Amino acid sequence: MKRNLRSLITLSMIAGSLVLTSCGDSKKDKKDSSTHDGHEMHQEAEGMDHTKETEKSMVEFKNDTVEQAYKHYLSIKTALVESDHVAVKEAAGKLVDVYGEKARTNEIALRAKRFLDVSNIEEQRDIFSSLTKAMEPVLKEAISSGKIYKQFCPMAFGGRGDYWYSDSEQIRNPYFGDKMLKCGRVEETIM
Questions:
Q1: What are the backbone angles phi and psi of residue 83, rounded to the nearest 5°?
Q2: Which stretches does the entry tag as region Disordered (predicted)?
Q3: Domain-embedded: residue 12
Q4: What is the pTM of this model?
Q5: Alpha-carbon dihedral 156, 127, 78, 178, rounded to 10 degrees
Q6: pLDDT tens for residues 73-93?
Q7: 35/92 Cα distance (integer angstroms)
């Protein structure tokens, strides 16, 4: 009996610690942020207005193509945050157009084209993950001033976690939208 009680208590403590360190959408937790592995984690507080403007980093790039690509990437991210599959397609089309004739061979444009045939928001979020991976070397090589925030959500894709880029330190999670709007942390600042 004592062993069963001890096992039950141990399991309860483990489950409790998992709940506290994840970014679950708890209605009882009105705290705006918590700590996870030494990094700041954000969570949406109930009733908060997440449409208000945040301070955005003004970024300049060494060439106009990358600047335009980043602008449309951010539009895709914002549309995913808002779970607007139509706006995702529109922004992706503009991203493809940035590359013109090179769109047939450019990794970013090829990944952006995949959005054009998909209306399911979850499939679009999958494509966004792939697009983010293609953007990384381009952004790091072409930035000339300003900051880009590489952000991470540990809960994305069944706990595998994934990244995205933002022009603001404020977390707006494209992988969950309103479900876990502020779930994530800044992993790196690219300057």
A1: 55, 40
A2: 24-52
A3: no
A4: 0.71
A5: -40
A6: 999 999 999 999 999 999 999
A7: 34
Tokens of 173: 């999670």
**DSSP characters for 68-107?**
HHHHHHHHHHHHHHTT-HHHHHHHHHHHHHHTGGGGGT-H
Q: How far apart are CA 164 and CA 87, in angstroms?
A: 18
Kindly state whether residue 11 falls inside one of the protein's structural domains: no
What tokens appear for 155 in the block? 């809960």
Q: How many domains does the chain have?
A: 1
**What proportions of the chain, in percent to the nearest 5, are helix, strand and coil?**
50, 15, 35
According to DSSP, the residues that pair with 41 across neighbouring strands are: 34
Residue 23 belongs to a domain:
no
